[in-house]
Amino acid sequence: MQRGAPVSLISTGNQGLDLVLRGGLPENRLYLLEGAPGAGKTTLALQFLREGVRRGERPLYVTLSETREELRAVAVSHGWDLDEFDVFEFSSIESVLGAGSDQSILHSWELELGETVRLVQAEVERTQPKRVVFDSLSEMRLLAQDPLRYRRQILALKQFFAGRDTTVLLIDDMTGNGDGRDTHLHSLCHGVITLERLTLTFGAARRRLQIQKLRGVDFVAGFHDFNIRKGGLDIYPRLIAADHHTPFTGDLVQSGVPELDGLFNGGPMRGTCTLITGPAGTGKTTIALQYLYAACERGEAATVYQFDERIGTLLTRASAFGLDLQKHIDAGTLRIEQIDPAELSPGEFAARVRREVEARQAQMLVIDSLNGYLSSMPEEQLLILQMHELLSYLGQQGVVTFLINPQQGLVGSMATNLNISYVADAVVLLRFFEAEGRIRKAISVLKNRGGRHEDVIRELRIDSQGVRVGEALKQFRGVLTGTPEYTGERAPLMEDR
């Protein structure tokens, strides 16, 4: 390649990985794909070769550790045909090492390492492949027995492919190198892709990918969650909000209840996030659904991510309060997704949100609840960072977001295990209070970055008449204790009528 010439990229066959690589891999280079057994290396390697077939290239799979039938089983599980490309295996004892032998099936542990490498080179000379997968280096490491000899043979392979129009993917299962990482291999290869499989205390195993290095090319650094599903690896590139800005107007969004919008001085602004917090049963979800229902009535697409409550229960409860969500689901305006926290990674959740916003043009999202979202995290300390990036992305897209944050306990001092209120643009506080021997509900807005807001406490009622917000209640005692008591006049209180 001439100095200053643009780098020519080739697709890996995996859309998510191409996004992480910002286009693909520089062609005609040697790459290392490493990971423990079960991490998904073989599946990704097959995707890499199948992309070559799709482009009319001739690919070659060199296997020292698996038989053709084992590879075929992997391919069939994804609905692929292994016969699409050449497979060169070292597994049959019937092979003969005589000169001029045309056999491509050899017994690896009876060969010297140098002869093994020469046979691979001969097969490459014969087939002239455009893409090569070499699986796996751990077998070569065992054949070499001596680390210096092993490294010399890897260097010889690199030099052999250097003058060819071939992109090579070396696979290492990290089982025969002490602590797992082979730093010398990292230095020899043009790029290193690491797959990890993490076993959690509860729930499905989590898998993540990282680009350790890639010479001369920009890529999305950090960990990227992925799943292995029929059809290959679903890789979810780490969300970077700054890369996804869309122009929008910051107009106010109304709920259809003027008194409720009045708390925000007209309603939440587009591109903002509203945190609704309070004890269980105060109406947090219903307040969010009121805004969502009004958005659907205006013809705007909206989505609810339901971590805690069953969808059927949610629809029944909303209908009892005069919110017919089913008609908007049938019309395609509203989508409610039931989320199983034990089966979901943060990266996959962010990818689902992006699809709703970019494919369905969703303009309003409800996440119910943050405690459920916390359960989907492998480490709790990542919650604030990942949620902050997700909310920044939604803000850049002009989406109105409602976060439901249940507080611990029903009465008395309230607390939450999520210190996330600072990332929200507006915070709505709901409380129970006592007046004349009855338990009532109060609503107030604590902050609103989008503009002015009321600083008073109003009564909230949610019943068959829908969501109602009463007059300002000025005479309270013990507001900051968690269960305020109203000591004012009876007249401002909302009664059945």
From TrEMBL:
Signal peptide start and end residues: none
GO molecular function: ATP binding; hydrolase activity; protein serine/threonine kinase activity
Protein's UniProt keywords contain Ion transport: no
EC number, as in UniProt: 2.7.11.1
Pfam families, alphabetized: ATPase
Domain KaiC: 8-249, 251-483
Keywords, alphabetical: Hydrolase, Kinase, Phosphoprotein, Repeat, Transferase
InterPro entries the UniProt entry points to: AAA+_ATPase (IPR003593), Circadian_clock_KaiC-rel (IPR051347), KaiC (IPR030665), KaiC-like_dom (IPR014774), KaiC_dom (IPR010624), P-loop_NTPase (IPR027417)
Segments forming a coiled coil: none
Domain of life per record: Bacteria
Protein name: non-specific serine/threonine protein kinase
